[in-house]
């Protein structure tokens, strides 16, 4: 079976709810890059659909991950709205030391998780799967705090995730994450240009 035939089969196998979830997920990333608070309602509905779909397809870990995203969508919505009431939640940055420590911590958690799961699951990509999952959790939290570097993490995460899904035959999802990668670069540029010191220099 050719690549295009596999891609067509995967597209035909999609449910209507999955299509809605994907569209809202794309809207979330685009709106987040624009710092529009409507990104969080989009994320909320998208992750709620994915939570149900993964649970219905007996993928409890993925369902649990999306429940986390759902809770972060609620928190991000509240936090950004609170910031807007206080004349806008500004984009901020964290120190290299902070990111260095967090990267080491996330790597340790990822390795520990993958090692623990290796006794239950047999997969050639278990460590990469754990790495993408843990760093996605961390980057999502940074997004809720409007930390600029969250987009840098997403560039790397989306590239790794796209490769992972491609290797496992999930071509549609891989293409989606390639699109996410482009949005991450766009978001990084948009947020960087909107930082208070950049805006002050421009005026």
Automatic annotation (TrEMBL):
Sorted UniProt keywords: Cell membrane, Membrane, Transmembrane, Transmembrane helix, Transport
The record's family statement is:
Belongs to the nicotinamide ribonucleoside (NR) uptake permease (TC 4.B.1) family.
GO MF annotations, alphabetized: nicotinamide riboside transmembrane transporter activity
Q: What is this protein called?
A: Nicotinamide riboside transporter PnuC
> What InterPro entries has UniProt attached to this entry?
NMN_transpt_PnuC (IPR006419)
Its topology with respect to the membrane? Answer: Multi-pass membrane protein
GO cellular component labels: plasma membrane
Organism name: Saliniradius amylolyticus
Q: What does this protein do?
A: Required for nicotinamide riboside transport across the inner membrane.
Q: Which residues cross the membrane?
A: 12-31, 38-55, 61-78, 98-119, 125-144, 151-166, 172-189
What subcellular compartments does it reside in?
A: Cell membrane
* One Pfam family from the record: NMN_transporter
